[in-house]
Amino acid sequence: MCGICGIIGGFGDRTEPAVRAMMQAMVHRGPDDDGYEERPVGSDIGGAVAAFGFRRLAILDLTPAGHQPMVDAITGNCLAFNGEIYNFRHLRNRLAAQGVRFRSTGDTEVLLQALTCWGEAALDELDGMFAFAFYEARTRRVLLARDHLGIKPLYLARQPRGIVFASEVRAVLASGLVPADLDQAGLAAFLAYGAPQDPLTVHRAIRSLPAGSMQWFDGGAAAGSPSPPPRRWWRFPPVAEPLPEGELVDRIQEVCIQAVREQCVADVPLVVFLSGGVDSAVLAALAKGNSDRLFTFTVGNATSATEDETAQARETAGFLETVHYETVVDDDWVQSEWREWMLGLDRPSVDGLNTLLVSNAVKVAGNTVALSGLGADELFGGYVTFDEVRRLRRMVAPAGVVPKAARSVMVPLVARLAGVNRRQRIIDLFGGGITYLDLALRARRVHGDEHLEAMGFDRRALGLTEHWLPSEAYDALTDVNQELFHTVSQVETLFYMGNTLLRDADISSMNCSLETRVPFLGRRVVDLVGSIPGRIHFPPGPARKHLLRQMASRVLPPRVLERPKRGFHLPLTLWMNGALREECEGSIAGLATSPAIDGGGVHDVWQTAVAHPGHRSQAQRLSLVVLGAYLDKIGSANPVAARPTRNSATVSG
After folding, report:
1. Residue 539: is the preceding peptide bond cis (ω within 30°)?
2. What is the CATH superfamily name and number for domain 245-380+490-561?
3. pLDDT (tens digit, 9 = 90+) per residue, 569-580?
């Protein structure tokens, strides 16, 4: 796990200082080593170069042979790579059979030689998490690519003299070559969902390379010529006819065991994040088979006993006989961690504090790699949204006889008769589309249309779809609306997890110089589980994650399987009303004065959320607090289209 950055273009003598500034901005991602390489791109005319920078967190092959950027002495090809290739040993054997000789024992050289021998076709051979820049000396061009689900980030900024890229937004800005101007479309998408939606960021000049995509750049980047757009090398698997259930569970167990075994490979200490639920318990049970002494960590809180899972995690650890550690967060500690979270934000998001808490605890204990159960809920159907979309579909189906255009006019009029807390919900539910995709996206909304419009955003003027998304966001979807489970699973995996959970897990753990691995998101696991029809995932009965539970019953006792899903939640509403109230009010006051947003609308939305507490209102309040803190951190002088403000007074609640 590392940080990569670079420039493709003709910035002259500004190139190396800019790349080194980006490297310095990512020391936390790689405190163990750094490297810089520069190569010519395009023709000899113009002096355009590809300059790669690297920060290393040493995990595999801790010797200097793992140094990056890595250059192949025979071809001159060069690679800067962030992540892990889990099936590198298999690929190494295949390449060795073709005559390739290796000088290192890690996965970086395997990836470099795979790209050298197989070109972009190598991407489809990889099972891992990665973002990389590959310089092909023969053609003097650069390939940028991300893994199938975008577990590892990669941000790009096109400037008149070339391309600037890095693993983090703040590193791109640290180059000094890219303006921090805010993007109204990115801000709106963030407020709609609680995280920026790829390929948007909240900065006008910076975009995220879409997950499962690749893009080539050559010397034309320096001349301002348009480059071919990103191309997808992976999409969510279509529904396939499954094996009989017993054989299917056998196959799921097989690919999960293989994923965990490969992801337990490390030359540094490794632990498992353990909650009280099934996902992390299964993960720990499978990891136990790869270690004589497995370490597990859990985090609880002293503020709310109803959201503390330490007792359940302790019981699971006892059954598995792991070396178990607990960290309990109290009000004093959360204030310190909250400030660290706000300062460490690479982009605004309503998630990530929980990952920072456990990552800090794991790193302080001397560990460098952690396994997380992230992905099981999305693929196996653990979230309440699977049930919610099914219920909502039954509710709104009769409204389908009324044309959508007519409903968009009639529903707001009828909704006025409802209370404030229900009005926007009715409009969102009955006024828009009623397909599985419509309902699944709506179930993940933080702010509805009414809130976003009150804060000064117009989705049509910003070029966003009716769901406040960029049109490119739908490119990875397959067989949409053919089946409820498959559609909801894609939304949860590609939108919620992809844009929120994975991004926040990466930045929060890497702020602590900790690598987080996610075995349930291994390529073979996703390709298998994602293709299983909903009727197999969701047979009649109350229990969610049917197939995962079938596999879990083989490695865990019934008392663990019978626990209700709770997840790792923090009592944020209590903290925002108590220990963190002063910090929250300061962020809101600052946001209300920003030209990026209608301050009067911010005030109104905040007061409404305070007056009508609930799960959604917590996310609504947190989104405003985080955005205010982020804008304060990057500076309030960023040029944006000024918006009229009605009231920028300090708000409370």
Report:
1. no
2. HUPs (3.40.50.620)
3. 677 888 888 888
